[in-house]
Amino acid sequence: MQRRDFIKGIGAGGIASASLLTANTASAKKVIKWKMVTSWPKNFPGLGTGAEFLAKTINEMSGGRLKIKVYGANQLVPALEVFDAVSRGTAQIGHTGAYYWKGKHPATQFYTSVPFGLTAQEMNGWLYHGGGLKLWEKLYDRFNLVPNPVGNTGVQMGGWFNKEINSIEDLKGLKMRLPGLGGEVLKMAGGTPVTLPGGELYTSMQSGAIDATEWVGPYNDLAFGLHKVAKYYYHPGWHEPGSTMEAMINKDAFKELDKDLQHIVRAACRVANADMLADYTAKNNTALKTLMTEHKVQMLKFPDDVVKKLRELSEQAVHKVGQHDDISKEIYQSYQKFRTDVMQWSKVSEQDYMAARSQ
Ligand code: CA
Known about the structure:
Elements lengths: L1 H28 L2 E7 L8 H15 L4 E6 L10 H7 L4 E4 L23 H10 L2 H10 L3 E2 L2 E4 L6 E3 L13 E3 L2 H9 L3 E3 L6 H7 L4 E2 L4 H7 L7 E4 L8 E7 H6 L2 H35 L4 E4 L2 H18 L4 H33 L1
Parallel strand pairs: 1-2, 1-3, 7-8, 7-9, 10-12
Antiparallel strand pairs: 3-11, 4-11, 5-11, 6-10
Helix pairs in contact: 2-10, 4-5, 5-12, 6-11, 8-10
The structure holds calcium ion.
């Protein structure tokens, strides 16, 4: 009797396991297909390849249950229409930069980079462990979007100019491609900021439609050949000290995913976030050498008094955006507090170490 019960027990367990297996197999066979629109040319070094890396990582981590097809700028929608496309569900996910959406809400600008703001390392600290991402989610919720940090370029370069910038006056009347808060600062200095997608920078410089441009750093600027259309390469990128890229997800599409897939997507975003910064750190270095030795690019540093003035104007510009509405105030206060606190730590760690290493 005991033996029969034992065997019966195994039998029942076996059946239970088998039906569980059938259920798992059934969900494993269900393949979800998403479209990813991006603001970058397909496979553009760093940014486009970063988007592909995210799609590939999600596909592999999910065992092929969530497949994402990546579209370059203009393949499905133009570079600067990614926000609308994902918000309304034309695409389920978009890889882009939050500051392109300042027309949707000015506070989006805190989520790419703030002039004289956080570095990549500090930005990740604020987003993941300083409350920044929670507020970003709150900001994007009204647009039916779920934001994720996916990639960081590190400190950018100050841009390409055809005249020297020896005083703040030299920025007056300058028409420069400079998106986000950096653009607001240029406007305050008497210049004209323009937001253009990366793919249009070379021709806009060549035709004289703009006088100057920034893009990212040596790795990306070399890829677009910007050294062929400008004389001087300025540093540092005061306007973008550590630009975060974003993967925005349509909220309805995200909610439809099984819980484990949602975790996979979020985890893949974190992996891709770290990977892009590593990619930029490695490649900027070699590209800078190529620009300086092969292309004899003239590197210039912004004079101290110009930087000081830009910093003063930046404080005003950032403060102004931070007063726009309640959510802007909340984000601004959180960002500013984190910046003040982390600067004390960075000063005695990264900053002192970098100085010690250069002596
Ligand atoms: Ca830039």
